[in-house]
Amino acid sequence: MITVEGLNKTYRTGHVEVHALKDVSFTVAEGELLAVKGRSGSGKTTLLNLIGGLDTPESGRVVVGEWEVSTLGEAALQRMRRETVGFVFQSFGLIPVLSAAENVGVALRLTRTPAREREERVRLLLSLVGLADQARQRPYELSGGQQQRVAIARALAHKPRVLIADEPTGQLDSETAQSVMQLIRAVVRDQGVTTVVATHDPLLIRHADRVIELSDGALVPRA
Ligand code: ADP
Ligand code: MG
Questions:
Q1: How far is CA 130 from CA 15, 91, 147, 160, 210, in A?
Q2: Where are the beta strands (DSSP E) in 124-209?
Q3: Are residues 115 and 173 in the same domain?
Q4: What is the pTM of this model?
Q5: Most buried of 27, 38, 76, 103 (most Cβ within 10 A)?
Q6: Of the residues 135, 159, 183, which one is the last residue of a structural domain?
């Protein structure tokens, strides 16, 4: 489902160059849950952004489904993201003035899904993440774990084939982190969505089908 081949990315700020990814190659099978581990600064976010089409590589290939992501222009990247990818971030990223249900429905408004169908899908998603009773609450009326559940429901709203989660439990206490990771695990199983999760939490990594590790931008060979 995902192929990454010889990926390189260098950031330049003034005279300083950071080689954030060095010749990274791997594949992710359809329906697989892949964890990317590595210390802060090892290149996890850079890698996820390149897979999700939020950034473009310096060299190398990224293929997601039928999309040759690394060659797409901005308009095609936008379409790819809208149709194929769901994102979950550490900071939840919910819109504060909208209710949980409205936050989940945002993506469906963008795709002009009819209101009846949208409401149905939002209801289904909120119950999938265990928040059927919180539909009308605003983000500030929800706990961190609940907010991340809403964010996961939102990421799945348009039925993406790929889910990208960048340290989704980084702001949660360890018990809540476990339950959010279990939710991601269940979602991957039920919806068959191919998922890449960046995390440095060893307790979460064991929920993954497979783990790769980055160190200073390079893939660490498996022991
Ligand atoms: P991680 O997510 O594993 O913490 P990142 O992918 O965010 O790692 O960062 C990898 C390296 O690239 C780090 O050295 C970081 O400082 C650098 N970096 C990340 N984003 C930028 C940017 N926009 N400009 C310059 N350097 C960056
Ligand atoms: Mg990061």
A1: 49, 20, 11, 20, 26
A2: 162-166, 194-198
A3: no
A4: 0.94
A5: 103
A6: 159
Residues ≥6 apart with Cβ < 8 Å to 180: 145, 148, 149, 152, 168, 169, 172
What number of CA atoms fall less than 13 Å from residue 110's CA on the CB side?
A: 14
Taking the CA of residue 214 as reference, the ligand 1 atom at the shortest distance is 3
Q: What is the pLDDT of residue 97?
A: 96
Distance 9 CA to ligand 1 centre (A): 10
Query: Closest residue (by CA) to atom 22 of ligand 1?
Result: 11
Enclosing domain of residue 144: 93-159
**Mutational test site, ligand 1, from 7, 8, 10, 11, max ligand atoms within 8 Å of CB:** 11
Ligand 1, atom 23, residue with closest C-alpha: 11
Same domain, 35 and 15: yes
Can you tell me the mean pLDDT for 32-57? 95
Q: Which ligand is nearest to the CA of 217?
A: 1
Q: 44 C-alpha to center of ligand 2: Å?
A: 5
In the chain, % of residues over pLDDT 70: 100
Residues with CB under 6 A from ligand 1: 11, 13, 18, 20, 38, 40-46
Same domain, 38 and 144: no
Q: How confident is the model at residue 223 (pLDDT cuts 50, 70, 90)?
A: low
Task: Average the pLDDT over 150-166 and give the result.
Answer: 95
